[in-house]
Specification:
Elements (H helix, E strand, L loop, with lengths): L1 H4 L1 H24 L14 H13 L8 H28 L1
Helix pairs in contact: 2-3, 3-4
């Protein structure tokens, strides 16, 4: 995909894939769709920074290898999903 989109567009798409879930959680919270405990996902923001760092540091001629992007992204999406689930479960338990 990165080869087809080009370096800058690939960075933008990757950034949107990382940032958009946080924006949607905040939006759903403000609209009253998601409970306040759903905001626990913001604890994973440091993982988002870790996942995006190699993409933003790389020069166009030095694109990061796909394998270097997998581990941070996996941890980010795991943490995000678990924290969101925890927030929803705690809402119904408490």
């Amino acid at each position: 995909m990165a080869a087809a989109l080009g370096g800058e567009t690939s960075r933008l798409v990757y950034g949107l894939l990382v940032v958009l879930p946080y924006f949607l959680v905040l939006l759903f919270f403000l609209l009253g769709i998601l409970p306040g405990l759903g905001m626990l996902v913001f604890v994973s923001v440091p993982l988002a920074v870790w996942a995006m760092a190699p993409v933003w540091r790389a020069t166009p001629t030095q694109a990061p290898a796909l394998t270097t992007l997998e581990r941070p992204a996996i941890w980010l999406y795991l943490a995000f999903g678990l924290l969101l689930a925890l927030g929803l479960i705690l809402r119904h338990v408490g």
